[in-house]
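To whoever is on call:

I kicked off a structure prediction for a single chain this morning and the downstream step that reads the tokens threw a length-mismatch warning. I double-checked the sequence; it's 335 residues and nothing unusual in it as far as I can see. Pasting both halves so you can look.
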Amino acid sequence: MSRAVFAAACAACLALLDPATARAGAWTVPEGKSWTKVEWVFIDSDRVFADADRAAQMQTCVGGIGDRVPYDCVSGGRFFAHQLVIETWLGIHERFSMGIRLPFFLNSEVSTATGAVDNRRGIGDIRFEAQGLILDAAVLLAAKMQVKAPTGFFTVDSLGVPLGEDQWDIAFVGIVSYPFWKGWAWLGAEAGYRVRTRNKTIDPPLNLGDEILAAFEIGVRPEPAPWLYLAARWDLLYGFTNRSDVSLFDVAARRVMYVEPKITLNPFFHKSGEHSDLGLNFSVRVPVWGRGWPADPIWILGLTGTFRVFPGYSANAGASRRKPSPPVWQDIPPQ
């Protein structure tokens, strides 16, 4: 396996652990409040969706492009990781929020074609985000921008484990949300485009293909059990071909479609105070289609909460105009 192909495969593993959108819906965080999530993310993957590169190099064990195959025909190969992710958003204005997402790899391990095993710990790539609510009516419309900084360790050495992708990315996403059932349920859709810059560490340098992002989500908080929130999400990432300065080293694009059931428990929902929306989250991200992407599920366990940072200052700050307030950071029960 070439160094460029190896680096691209590891980058796909990292991207699956840290998706473009972790927070749901067009709602912004209430003005003056901070929504924070701490989650543990785990993957143990020994299969990958075959792409053109892997099919060409592993003809003895690849049934066809898109099949779930070993990372390598000889050793099998494996990607194993524990990750702690801290994500926090701050309501700057009643219609504008900013956030940051910090991934910490507690352990990241890769078995390569040579049979060697290497592991690494450390910080991954940091993501900065901003979201603005454009339309606040029966249907909500928002726009979001995300910038990924290459803060994680990166290597193309087949004996090294990268913790980042080594290039800047910027994504633009449009979000539509529609609450119904008296505000106890909602539908949402997202569409976006991610610009990926040139990776100069790979030799020869690799011009990473941009990516199309799409998602659909439905969530419900049953009226008889308002402490329970259930959701299901569908995501698509469709990448264009990565091209190097030498066409011989072109790397096939990464592509994936996955579904993700989610469950959140709010044990203090009926209590007053800041801890009323404290949530315990569990979800599993299941890949159902892909190219050059890990084919095994991601397990996620998280803790969320909303806290007052500063008093609201806008004329409508804290008003019940949110119909409903988003169930992922429930600060006002649906009416």
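Update from on-call: the warning came from a stale cache, not from the record. Cleared it. Sanity check on the structure: Helices lie at 3-17, 52-57.
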